Amino acid sequence: MSELLNTVFLKLLDWGIPFILGLLFRKKVAHALIRLKKWLFNDIVTVKIVSVRCYYPGEIFGFNHQFLEDIKRRIPNMKFLDMFDREVRFTVPIFGNLRLSLDVIPCEEDAVNTQYRDVEEVKMALEPENQVRLGVREIHRLNDFKDWTEVLFNASERFALERSVRIKRNYTILEMSRIGRFEEKRFELVDDDLGSRIEAVPDKLTIVTEPSSQIPKAAEKYLLA
User: Mean pLDDT in the chain?
Assistant: First the structure.
């Protein structure tokens, strides 16, 4: 009986190992072929993105014409739409209309007080007004958004905020439609090299990076994961 079991076990190994290796190899090849197809056909990805910089409490002067003139010199392809005390709107290639806003965030216990006596932080945010459609080969355009963020936030610190204000947090949240659905439909991980947290569900990929400068690299790395 034991000889029969040993024989069956050996036969299973002889058949099973090549089968498993072949299956894994086929999945790897299929994965690579699908990635290649999506790149060649430049499959469309819908993107929602917001970059945020939070500051410790400080005086807010609001947006002004000095700020606007500084931006026009630094980003010549950005067209001004309108400006209010705490909001500016621009239009740019690919991303369409962008909204830059300044908000005062009250402490939790003072949230019902419209006068905001105790301020927890000042929040600056830059985001497109609508979802952005990018081809797989155009994900590198997120570098443009990253550069605009740096220019706009730095100009805001010079002209719209108290000079002594200190940065508290600096991060970007990116949501992309998921087009690479392979073996693992859901996963969560932390990429320490990119300072990013990645969460994938069947139809969406969410990336949170801190600092914001890593968002283009993280998007390119995990787009087809």
Answer: 80
Place of tokens 């400068």: 213
H/E element, 142:
helix 142-159
CA atoms within 13 A on the CB side of 23: 7
Q: Which residues pair with 122 in a beta bridge?
A: 55, 104
Q: How far apart are CA 171 and CA 6, in angstroms?
A: 59
Q: At what angle do helices 142-159 and 215-222 cross, to 10 degrees?
A: 160
- CA 88, 91, 93, 95: dihedral to nearest 10 degrees? 70
Exposure string of 175-194, with b = 16+ CB inside 10 Å and e = fewer, is bbebbbeeeeeeeeeebeeb
Which pLDDT score, from 0 to 100, does residue 30 have?
54
* Spatial contact of 223 and 182, defined as CB atoms under 8 Å apart: no
Q: Say which residue the tokens 């550069």 belong to.
A: 147
Extents of the domains making up the chain: 1-41, 42-222
Give the three-state DSSP class for 153.
helix
Strand-pair partners of 89: 82, 99
> In this structure, are residues 86 and 63 in contact, taking their beta carbons and an 8 Å threshold?
yes
| pLDDT tens digits, one per residue of 37-52 | 666 777 788 999 999 9
Distance CA 64, CA 113 (A): 28
| Model confidence, pTM | 0.77
**Spatial contact of 180 and 35, defined as CB atoms under 8 Å apart:** yes
d(CA 93, CA 144): 10
Q: Any idea which residue has 């000095």 for tokens?
A: 66
